[in-house]
Write a structure and sequence with these properties.
With 53 residues, the chain is mostly helical. Helix content is 81%, strand content 0%. It contains two helices and no strands. The radius of gyration is 23 Å and the shape is rod-shaped.
């Protein structure tokens, strides 16, 4: 039973050693979506309204 935990620890260590690449991918996609929504809102909702008088 002790060997099972040792192998599991080795697997976890290997995953941690590879770094948080998935985290950066999710953060990048989320940032892209926020910027896309902002740009779409600007061009499709804000600009067509024109100058407010």
């Amino acid at each position: 039973m002790h060997d099972e935990h040792g192998e599991e620890d080795k697997a976890v260590d290997e995953i941690v050693r590879q770094g948080p690449s998935g985290t950066w991918a999710v953060a990048g996609v989320a940032t892209f979506i926020v910027l896309l929504v902002y740009v779409l809102f600007y061009f499709l909702a804000y600009l067509p309204r024109g100058v407010m008088e």
